Amino acid sequence: MSQQTLQRLAPETLEDIGDRVPVPAYDRSRVRTGIVHLGVGGFHRAHQAMYVDALMNASPGDDEVLGWGITGVGVLPGDARMAEVMRAQGGLYTLVVKHPDGHLEPRVIGSIVDYLHAPAQGEEVLDLMAAPATRIVSLTVTEGGYHVNQVTGDFDPDDAGIQHDLGLGAGELPTTAFGFVVEALARRREAGVPAFTVMSCDNIQGNGHVAHQMIGAFARLRDERQGTDLADWIEREVVFANSMVDRITPVTTDDDRAALADRFGVEDAWPVVCEPFTQWALEDAFPTGRPAFEEVGVQVVPDVVPYELMKLRLLNASHQALCYPGYLAGHRYAHEVCHDPLFVDFLLGYMEHEGTPTLSEVPGVDLAQYRRQLIERFANPEVRDTLARLCAESSDRIPKWLVPVITERLAAGGSVDRAALVVASWARYAEGIDEQGEEIDVVDRRRDVVMQRAAAQLGEGADELAFLRDPALFGDLVDTPAFTGPYLAALRSLHEVGARATLEAWAARG
User: Fold this and answer.
1) 99, 382 in Cβ contact below 8 A?
2) Which of 43, 219, 291, 434 could tie 231 with a disulfide, CB 3.0–4.6 Å?
3) What protein family is recorded (predicted)?
């Protein structure tokens, strides 16, 4: 499409763009905020906001449905760029589904009606969260955003932002997601407004329960510092809904922006790309109401746990199982790994023999079919999900996704050979140099500690178990021979012959 026909995405251009790609069928001027979402990234826009948009498209004249619009909130200073883009585009963005055959399926999403940047608009954020019309506050603040001590499972208050928010003085505004949630609840209580429901959409087992425990602990510490009694009211009045969310959503690239412009004539500063598959299992726990999500394919269920464990221990843990050895072997994208029969056999072996035995029955799901479908999803060449993205923030991921599989398998007397190889691959990756001698950019909130432990397993006088001597990540696995045996064998093989030959040796063992 020629440059002359390029149309910038904005509310005033929506009608013209509708001739090129699907746009909202509802009148966005009638949409009102009922959900405030903290942590607007690609995943939220490809998932929860998409479902709300689909519901509004299905009932464009229903005022109740149109009362569930989303206001996004960026809590971090780095969210300023997202705020700039979302404001310029009136909250609109293009969701581009990438099919394996190269077919692109774009749609303009209109369910986000406003975006606030909390560092600059903190009072507006609190006013909106405290407003009676806001009945749900949802979260995608990453696994690390819940401040869980990985050893004790308790709330970890050491973060500087948390410390600031615990001791807010008169006229001061919070800086963290927890700070905004609790301060908004305090204002609702004072005004006699019923509490909103907190809905976590992060990849954490029992994410609603974790949010409940951690936000409750934050509120109790805040009470101690400020001489208030809010925590008991939160315990009585606030419901924390569990959910399982699933859709592969890679980072948007300049190539994605260019493809949208060249093929569809839409200029979008921050479109979102995703795979065709999407799933959301949501606990039906919303005392003040919720959108009728079941009408657009959401599985609204009484118990999310079986779906959560299936996703965390098969999909998420398998992402870890493919990214480190795949990167070391020279691959750079998930689809490259999943077009490699050696890696596919390894992934299926992990899922069938180590991940699946830790699961109970998942209602309505054939686990054998689900495992095969995961490989097909990972192999989608159009998604171009980078291994670097999957390897990032491992300190928040491995303890939640893979370590529980290891501990349960050990307790049952089962094999953990493949999981041990995954952990050893992370240890080798964290050394910061790949098998081709190229530097690895290790992205992790505990980067310095992780890389120091990885360095300690090298050279003269090396401690081969140094990487495991981190109870915050691995508990007591370093003292468990049934794990350290296969772990050491894997680590030595990775150093001596590399990732591909190591996987070949593991495959030969069966």
Assistant:
1) yes
2) 219
3) Belongs to the mannitol dehydrogenase family.
pLDDT at 284 over 60: yes
Structure tokens at 63: 């005022």
Query: What angle separates helix 118-130 from helix 177-191, to the nearest 10 degrees?
Result: 30
DSSP-H helix ranges across 412-480: 417-429, 447-455, 471-474
In tens, the pLDDT along 191-203 reads 999 999 999 999 8
CATH of the domain at 329: 1.10.1040.10
The alpha helices in 159-290, defined as continuous H runs, are 160-166, 177-191, 207-226, 230-237, 254-264
Residue 119: exposure state from Cβ atoms within 10 A (0-12, 13-18, ≥19): middle
Nearest to 325 by CA among 428, 245, 205: 428
- Cβ pair 197, 134 in contact under 8 A: no
Q: Based on the domain organization, do 379 and 418 belong to the same domain?
A: yes
What is the share, in percent, of the chain residues with pLDDT greater than 90? Answer: 93
SS3 label, residue 233: helix
Query: Which amino acid would we find at residue 402?
Result: L
The CB density around residue 255, as the number of other CB atoms within 10 Å, is: 10
* Residue 233 contacts residue 272 (beta carbons within 8 Å): no
List the beta bridge partners of residue 266: 7
Average pLDDT of the residues in 120-124:
98
Q: Indicate if 233 and 311 belong to the same structural domain.
A: no
List the beta bridge partners of residue 138: 37, 199
